Each structure stands twice: as structure tokens, then as C-alpha cells.
């Protein structure tokens, strides 16, 4: 009887080989699961970023309604703006700083330096608009510094859905060649990535 009890006690623990097998299985399962979790986190950040940009789009619409449809003359990159213009956060949704922080701007580098993780494309479209007007008139025409959203599609020859006003400063959501790597806010309020359209 005592021998049977002793044998039973000796079989309670795991052997070293059994422990190694269990550890190996757990490692294998983690190796399979972690890339999926990482991908899910990336998608969640991109979705939250798109939500931020939609809220900013609503802020733009409120600003335009109060300012005769004229885009705010904010700096594209405030930290290096030679005209010392104010950042976009001064004009759009003031006091709502966190909406201008992309969840994928993990170090917060742009958010801290520029007060926003999103680049404002006012200067880009201002130059493009003036170039188009100059080409049509056959002379250098700097036009007005004001950009009226209602006139911009005709001045540029683009549809509203193709004129973006803000985007991630960098490809926060993937590689530069990866669809969905960068979110853009368009003047019609839509949010999408240009990369898919360029690749099709």
C-alpha cells in the first residue's frame, strides 16, 4: 500500500521534457497570435485617426460657415514658418487639442512641435491655385491670399473629393507603399488614403 502511494506522489509533477513541450507550444501560439494583435492595433489606430480627421472636418465646416467660406491662413508647418503664421489649432476647434493627435504618432513628435499630428495643406493649394490662374491668364497672377473653398475646384480643375486639406505628417499607419499608411481629410469632409487610387 505504501509503495502505491509513493508511486502516485512521484507522478504528480511534470518532467523537464513535458515542461519544454508546453513552453514550446505556448511560444508557437504566441508567434501566431502576436502579428494578428499587432495588425489589429494598427487598424484601431488608423480608424481612430480617421475619426479625429472627421471631427476636424466638422470644425473646418463651422469655421467656413463663420468666415464666408475662406480657409484659415494657418501655417503648413508652424515650427519652420517664416511668416510666423499661427498653427491650424488656433483656428479650428480651439481648446480641443487631443483631436489633433494621431494615435499612431506614438512619440508625439509632431504633436508637440507643430501642435498637431496632421499637416495643413493651405500653402500647397495656394501655390497650385495661383499657378493655374497664371497659366490661364498668360501672366504671373498671385491673386488673393484668400482661398474660398467654393471656388477652389473650378480654380484647380479638381473635384471637391480630390482636394485634401489635412493629412498625417508621416506614414503613421504603415509603409509608404502600403495602402492605408496615411489618412487624408478632403474639403468635402471625406477621409481616405490616396495611395489605393494611385495604385489602381
Structural summary, described in words:
- The protein is an alpha+beta fold and 200 residues long.
- The chain is 46% helix and 6% strand.
- The protein is built from six helices and four strands.
- The protein has helices spanning 2-10, 16-66, 109-114, 122-137, 152-156, 195-199, and strands at residues 118-120, 164-168, 184-186, 191-192.
- Strands 1-2-3-4 form a four-stranded antiparallel sheet.
- The termini are far apart.
- The model has no long low-confidence stretch (mean pLDDT 81).
Q: Which regions have little confidence, pLDDT < 50, spanning 5+ residues?
A: none
What share of residues is helical? Answer: 40-55%
Average pLDDT rating: 81
Choose one word for the global shape.
elongated
N-to-C order of helices and strands: HHHEHHEEEH
Radius of gyration: 27 Å
DSSP strand tally = 4
Head-to-tail CA distance between termini: 78 Å
- How many independent structural domains? 1
Largest sheet properties: 4 strands, antiparallel
Number of helices: 6
Strand order of the largest sheet: 1-2-3-4
Structural class comes to alpha+beta
Amino acid at each position: 500500500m505504501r509503495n502505491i502511494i509513493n508511486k502516485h506522489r512521484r507522478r504528480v509533477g511534470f518532467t523537464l521534457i513535458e515542461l519544454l513541450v508546453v513552453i514550446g507550444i505556448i511560444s508557437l501560439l504566441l508567434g501566431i497570435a502576436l502579428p494578428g494583435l499587432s495588425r489589429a492595433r494598427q487598424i484601431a489606430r488608423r480608424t481612430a485617426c480617421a475619426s479625429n480627421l472627421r471631427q476636424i472636418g466638422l470644425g473646418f465646416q463651422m469655421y467656413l460657415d463663420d468666415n464666408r467660406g475662406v480657409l484659415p491662413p494657418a501655417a503648413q508647418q508652424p515650427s519652420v514658418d517664416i511668416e510666423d503664421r499661427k498653427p491650424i489649432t488656433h483656428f479650428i476647434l480651439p481648446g480641443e487639442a487631443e483631436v489633433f493627435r494621431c494615435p499612431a504618432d506614438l512619440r508625439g513628435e509632431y504633436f508637440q512641435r507643430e501642435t498637431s499630428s496632421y499637416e495643413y495643406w493651405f500653402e500647397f493649394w495656394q501655390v497650385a491655385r495661383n499657378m493655374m490662374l497664371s497659366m490661364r491668364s498668360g501672366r504671373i497672377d498671385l491673386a488673393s491670399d484668400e482661398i474660398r473653398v467654393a471656388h477652389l475646384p473650378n480654380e484647380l480643375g479638381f473635384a471637391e473629393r480630390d482636394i485634401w486639406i489635412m493629412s498625417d505628417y508621416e506614414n503613421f499607419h504603415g509603409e509608404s507603399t502600403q495602402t492605408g499608411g496615411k489618412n487624408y481629410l478632403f474639403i468635402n469632409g471625406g477621409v481616405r488614403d490616396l495611395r489605393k487610387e494611385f495604385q489602381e
